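Inverse folding, one chain.
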């Protein structure tokens, strides 16, 4: 069989936004993805659902596979005829052993391409506000492995030239050897007051930066308990961080670990907003949204749209599933030419506008009760109302409309089902205390989140977990189930929830 092509792809330093467009293309077409510990997990979402993903990470001396075994695995998978992506943290050819893997592929007659990635030394320094070169400070730069033992007799590092001849030195994988690195630099003539920075998890929401000089940085690292992975920057340019630090200063949620319980297909907006503010999002979807098995009521309503005066949407899901079914039946928005519309919340209204329809009523507050209030000035007696929504939904809105004299048809547009395969992952997170907050965006997320926790350990596992709720109805459900609600959004939307979290941490 003709071997498949192998792409040695640099995953970048950790921020998924720094992944290259070429890398994204390779991920989409890969049949096999062989990835490292430092390759950002969100990048795997770029893979085809049919792709085989194999973890071969190396972490603190714990190697899933030896390098020889990884080389053989790449060769074996390519020989099946599939396209293989070898996804490597940073850049494949900068301390990534990509050169060795390329040599093995060449020896075995397997075609390959190299897709460079943003290397950690450059990205972490930039995110820490440290330009590695500066016209007024240095014109020389060196990347050095810190993994080599500087004390060994056969070191291939020219410490004399490095210490005296290079303005900025970036050490990779050097935290463990920091005492030996500083000793060698001082021994070969580097100024003891030369600034030093250690940047851990550079470019990610877990980034930590510690600065000092060659004489005190070892003690500062010990006191801070800073561990790998980190890069070490040595040189006068480190001083520029005082004025140029940007990433860590403008993110109120930096380093905060937040559980996101929304359905995976809906979580992206919340995750994006929280991540932009520095939060580390842990996705534990507790629900999934699907179309109902029985679509007869929805179909009957769509077949008689001329009968309705009003179409009311209470969620984005309602909009999405209604129009999906409308299109499946061979119709389009022209079928709604005589129907007026109302929405709960600006996001729902925006989704409706995506289909070319501007809603006629948008309440100022985003609750079903507010929609009812918004109709108080509208003659509703004898009006026919279609309400496509979740299978199990509160009766507040239809009851209020009926009291006004409207004829209301409630049809199931979608169903919300529990996700049950996250129980072990959630228990592990709660046991370790790895979450600062959990976000609840609906009553169903609260109920299903609770069902994932062993009942006999609920109090133990949630004792220190703080809760952020999107609104009072969700909060009431959380309280009834035993949670204490620490934050409630004033505006019952995703931006409102994010703003409430920012407000909480801006005072801490």
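Residues assigned per position:
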């Amino acid at each position: 069989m003709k071997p498949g092509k192998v792409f040695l792809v640099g995953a970048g330093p950790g921020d998924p936004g720094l992944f290259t467009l070429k890398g994204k293309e390779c991920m989409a077409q890969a049949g096999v993805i062989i990835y490292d510990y430092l390759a950002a997990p969100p990048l795997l979402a770029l893979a085809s659902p049919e792709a085989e993903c194999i973890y071969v990470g190396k972490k603190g001396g714990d190697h899933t596979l030896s390098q020889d075994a990884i080389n053989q695995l790449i060769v074996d998978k390519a020989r099946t005829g599939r396209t293989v992506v070898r996804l490597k943290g940073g850049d494949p050819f900068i301390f990534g052993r990509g050169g060795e893997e390329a040599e093995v592929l060449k020896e075995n007659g397997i075609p390959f391409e190299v897709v460079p990635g943003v290397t950690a030394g450059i990205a972490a320094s930039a995110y820490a506000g440290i330009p590695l070169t500066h016209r007024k400070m240095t014109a020389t730069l060196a990347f050095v492995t810190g993994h080599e033992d500087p004390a060994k007799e056969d070191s291939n590092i020219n410490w004399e030239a490095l210490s005296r001849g290079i303005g900025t030195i970036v050490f990779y994988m050097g935290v463990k050897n920091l005492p030996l690195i500083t000793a060698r630099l001082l021994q070969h003539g580097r100024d003891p007051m030369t600034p030093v920075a250690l940047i851990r998890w550079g470019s990610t929401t877990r980034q930590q930066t510690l600065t000092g000089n060659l004489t005190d940085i070892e003690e500062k690292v010990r006191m801070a308990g800073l561990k790998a992975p980190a890069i070490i920057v040595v040189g006068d340019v480190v001083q520029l961080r005082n004025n140029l630090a940007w990433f860590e200063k403008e993110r109120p949620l930096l380093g905060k670990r937040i559980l996101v319980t929304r359905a995976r297909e809906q979580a992206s907006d919340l995750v994006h907003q929280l991540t932009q503010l520095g939060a580390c999002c842990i996705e534990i979807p507790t629900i999934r949204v699907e179309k109902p098995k029985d679509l007869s009521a929805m179909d009957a309503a769509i077949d008689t749209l001329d009968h309705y005066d009003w179409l009311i949407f209470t969620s984005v899901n309602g909009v999405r599933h209604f129009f999906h079914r409308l299109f499946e039946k061979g119709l389009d928005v022209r079928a709604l030419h005589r129907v007026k519309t109302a929405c709960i919340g600006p996001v729902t209204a925006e989704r409706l506008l995506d289909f070319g329809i501007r809603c006629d009523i948008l309440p100022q507050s985003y609750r079903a009760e507010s929609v009812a209030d918004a109709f108080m000035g509208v003659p509703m007696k004898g009006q026919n109302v279609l309400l496509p929504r979740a299978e199990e939904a509160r009766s507040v809105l239809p009851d209020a409309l009926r009291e006004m004299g409207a004829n209301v048809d409630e049809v199931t547009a979608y169903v919300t089902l529990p996700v049950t395969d996250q129980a072990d992952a959630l228990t592990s997170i709660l046991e370790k205390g790895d979450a600062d907050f959990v976000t609840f965006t609906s009553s169903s997320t609260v109920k299903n989140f609770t069902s994932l926790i062993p009942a006999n350990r609920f109090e133990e596992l949630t004792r220190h977990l703080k809760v952020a709720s999107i609104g009072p109805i969700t909060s009431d459900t959380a309280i009834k189930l035993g949670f204490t609600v620490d934050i409630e959004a004033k505006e019952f939307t995703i931006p409102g929830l994010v703003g409430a979290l920012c407000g909480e941490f801006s005072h801490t």
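The chain has four domains: 6-118, 122-244, 257-286+419-506, 291-416. The CA atoms of residues 54 and 188 lie 44 Å apart.
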